[in-house]
Amino acid sequence: MKNAPRFLSLALSSAAGMMLMAPAVAMATQTAAAPLPLDQLWLFAKVFGQIKQEYVEPVDDSKLMTAAIKGMVSSLDPHSSYRDKADFQQWQEQITGRFAGIGLNIAPQDDGLIEVVSPLDDSPAAHAGIRPGDLITRVGDKPVQGMTEDQAITLMRGAAGTKVTLTLFRKTDNRTFPVTVTRAIINVQSVTTAIPVPGYAYVRIISFQERTTPDLAAKLEEIARAQPALKGLILDLRNNGGGLVQSAVGVAGAFLPRDSVVVSTNGQVDYAKSIYRDSYADYRLPTLRNDPLKNESALFKTVPMIVLTNAYTASASEIVAGALQDHHRALILGKTTFGKGSVQTSRPLTEDASLSLTTAYYYTPGGRSIQNIGILPDLPVDQFADGDPDDTRATREADYPNRLSNIQDPNEKKELEAREEARLVQLHLIEQEDDKKTSEQRQKDRDRAQIQFGSHDDFMLQQALNKLEGKPVQESKVTLEPRLTQNDVPRAPSEPAGN
């Protein structure tokens, strides 16, 4: 396996499919010569033997070893994982954005449940009314407590036309209820566009996939033809849980000067120390025959621009937001992002197994680590005109018990404690307001339609248009984090700054 391909992952866990692929290189084996912990291996063998001899019923050797390996890897951080043959096959399918399932992006919780990061637009899950923040407690008749994420994904996947029932707990309503969803072939259209008002373009990216950069290039060409005097552009990254790093670099590069730094990575091994720039060599994928941005209109390098974010803007989408923010190319409007600032390297171990291991932190062009911090908006804006209680309830990277620390920030513990204290205060205030509501008002809250991103009822989008048009913007009623500028956030001295 010396020359086995490796894959770098910058995404949350997904039943929809969002992964990052890098060119094949040999993985370094720096620790190969390190002495094995013989005492611990002896203890492991002793426990293994006792299970085989004394457990109430026979246990398969392979099952025991797989469980031991998965437990060892998953204990490291929320994003490292060991995949068996079925898991690895699912992961490979996800790269293309075409699979049979219900269309959910998910993330683990410290209580053993699984949280919905977002349903994919126009997916069976979205049509069934599943919302970001919903907690999955059962898949079919099986409780998810104790399951790995991959096991839960396997249960949600299945042949198109078949049904699966999820039991959900909705935090906003404090209730548990079942939802039956019919599986379908999901073909994720990662880039959609609209002209919300003449002279202004709206581009939404759902996830970063193999076709994202060429599809974006084609959509921008259409916009340039239809709106040659374009006054502003809005890039919507809400509910985007990540994807292929090359696609993220290509998307950021579509709006930055050529050869601009988009993101850098730093880890123990040599291949984890990289700088990705706006160049075809850095956003090229095997499926691309030529540079999709080669003939891009110069209009998109300078047109005024706003990026929309929320708590479920994660990983690779945070790379794009951070790059455009650090280069002062776009204003970030919305909510603080998820805060996943690490890179996972995935590669086959055998024909039947693969390892996805956290190998690096990544940094914005200005050298910021956003691990546990996220990208803070320049203009905090709520999802709705009357506020955004869902944001207070949202789970971010900082809420995971086995999260990686932000190695740049010496005050991280105090800052996270202060944020949690502020969040608990806001949750208490929300509960007090809920207690005052009548049953009719509570039912109205339950029945409130989900946000249709890009629609005329999309409050955050309307505020972005107001900003571009020079009109007043209604900023958030509550923010849990202080308003930081680029210069306030700790930096890594060894990382590049600016262009």
Mind explaining what this structure looks like?
There is one protein chain. The chain is of the alpha+beta class and about 500 residues long. Among the domains are: about 100-185, Pdz3 Domain (Roll); about 190-385 and about 395-410, Alpha-Beta Complex (2-enoyl-CoA Hydratase, Chain A, domain 1), CATH 3.90.226. Helix content is about 30%, strand content about 25%. The protein contains 13 helices and 21 strands. It has helices spanning about 40-55, 60-75, 85-95, 125, 150-155, 210-225, 245-255, 280-285, 315-325, 390-395, 410-435, 440-445, 460-470; strands at about 5-10, 80-85, 100, 105-110, 115-120, 135-140, 140-145, 165-170, 175-180, 185, 190-195, 200-205, 230-235, 240-245, 260-265, 275, 305-310, 330-335, 340-350, 355-365, 380. The strands form four sheets. Strands 1, 2, 14, 15, 16, 19 and 20 form a seven-stranded antiparallel sheet that branches. Strands 4, 5, 6, 7, 8 and 9 form a six-stranded antiparallel sheet that branches. Strands 11-12-13-17-18-21 form a six-stranded mixed sheet, with helices on both faces. Strand 8 and strand 9 form a beta hairpin. Helix 7 runs parallel beside helix 9. The chain starts with 6 loop residues before the first strand and ends in a 31-residue tail after the last helix.
Helical segment count: 13
Shape: globular
Q: What proportion of the residues is helical, as a percent range?
A: 25-40%
Strand content: 15-25%
Kindly report how far apart the N and C termini lie. Answer: 38 Å
Radius of gyration based on Cα positions: 23 Å
* CATH superfamily descriptor of the domain at 191-385 and 395-408: 2-enoyl-CoA Hydratase, Chain A, domain 1
Structural class estimated from helices and strands: alpha+beta
Largest sheet: 7 strands, antiparallel
CATH topology of the domain at 191-385 and 395-408: 2-enoyl-CoA Hydratase, Chain A, domain 1
Question: Based on DSSP secondary structure assignment, what is the total number of beta strands?
Answer: 21
Q: Stretches where pLDDT falls below 50 for ≥5 residues? A: 1-9, 13-31, 482-499
Which CATH architecture of the domain at 191-385 and 395-408?
Alpha-Beta Complex
Integer average pLDDT:
84
Q: According to CATH, what is the class of the domain at 191-385 and 395-408?
A: Alpha Beta
